[in-house]
Design brief:
The protein has two domains: 13-50, no CATH class; 54-189, Alpha-Beta Complex (Nucleoside Triphosphate Pyrophosphohydrolase). It is 18% helix and 39% strand. The protein contains three helices and ten strands. Strands 7-4-9-8 form a four-stranded mixed sheet, with helices on both faces. A three-stranded antiparallel sheet has the order 1-2-3, with no helix packed on it. The chain has a three-stranded antiparallel sheet with strand order 6-5-10.
Length: 193
């Protein structure tokens, strides 16, 4: 059976123009890309959303319940069922450390056991964002310290949902957040939940 997998590759960029850049972590640029080995062809335009990536946590307690957040997302015009998550926006911080920090800040929990489920490109046709999904078990209470929830986070709700109920909701299309679906389906496929 052949081995299949993604491979690193980079096509020449003839010109790059910032379309939006400010003091936040996300930017938008337009690259003029050249197809390798075809210098006679005109470069073509590709938009790229620069994004540092994010880490998400499928936190499961001793009763096989998942900590779910419901949070408003303006672009989707929905209050989505989500997992604790955060941006990989601190230089040098590993995705696992981001996941640990976010579980504490958003859910006031820490975990004694961590497993990396998978890392996936969010939407590689437009963004360089990578999602790092983790499973956390052995949950205990932890203080978020002086961290304060703002904006949409200040309105989010927290629910403990039986894993099987969440799995069914994903399969039925009632829970549509991509990282939630990937984490739940991967954990089930690997026999971890």
């Amino acid at each position: 059976m052949p081995v299949i997998g993604d491979r690193p590759e980079s096509w020449p960029v003839r010109e790059s123009q910032d379309l939006h850049r400010d003091d936040w972590i996300v930017a938008l640029r337009a690259d003029q890309v050249q197809r390798p080995g075809h210098p006679e062809e005109e470069p073509f335009r590709r938009l790229v959303v620069e994004h540092p990536g994010a880490a998400m946590v499928l936190a499961i307690d001793e009763d096989d319940r998942v900590l779910c957040l419901q949070q408003y997302r303006h672009a989707a015009q929905r209050a989505l069922v989500e997992l604790p998550a955060g941006l990989c926006d601190v230089d040098g911080e590993e995705p696992l450390a981001v996941a640990q920090r976010e579980l504490c800040e958003e859910a006031e929990l820490e975990a004694g056991q961590w497993s990396h489920l998978l890392s996936v490109w969010a939407s590689p046709g437009i963004t360089e964002e990578i999602h790092h999904l983790f499973l956390a078990r052995g949950l205990t209470h932890a203080s978020r310290g002086d961290f304060a929830l703002h904006h949409e986070e200040a309105e989010m709700t927290v629910d403990w949902v039986p894993f099987d109920v969440l799995h069914s909701a994903v399969l039925a299309g009632r829970v549509n957040d991509g990282p939630v679906a990937l984490a739940v389906l991967t954990a089930r496929a690997r026999g971890l939940a």
